[in-house]
Give the backbone structure.
Amino acid sequence: MNAWEILDAVSERKRRGKSYYEFFRDSSLSLGIYGLSAGEGDPQQPHTEDEVYYIVRGSGRMRIGDQDRAVTPGSVVFVGAGAEHRFHSIEEDLEVLVVFAPSEGSRA
């Protein structure tokens, strides 16, 4: 069985000192934790795979193309492959569960 505790993945991301930590990969999808500090810019570029973001903790805003919305714990956002997107106006440190389908980089 593949099962995880999100807070364990958050801790491992921080321990590694990385903004993104992938903790599961299969051909059909990959899972990771993405963290951004309050006030930090989001350097993301469009991805070649679809993505789902689930906000675990923190708050800010997300822009996808010309659409913009607030995100808080419990928010779920879908981003289609190739779409320009980024988090911004981060008020509280963000921890985000990221689901790529298929797995990140598999269509690159």
About this structure: The CA atoms of residues 15 and 75 lie 25 Å apart.
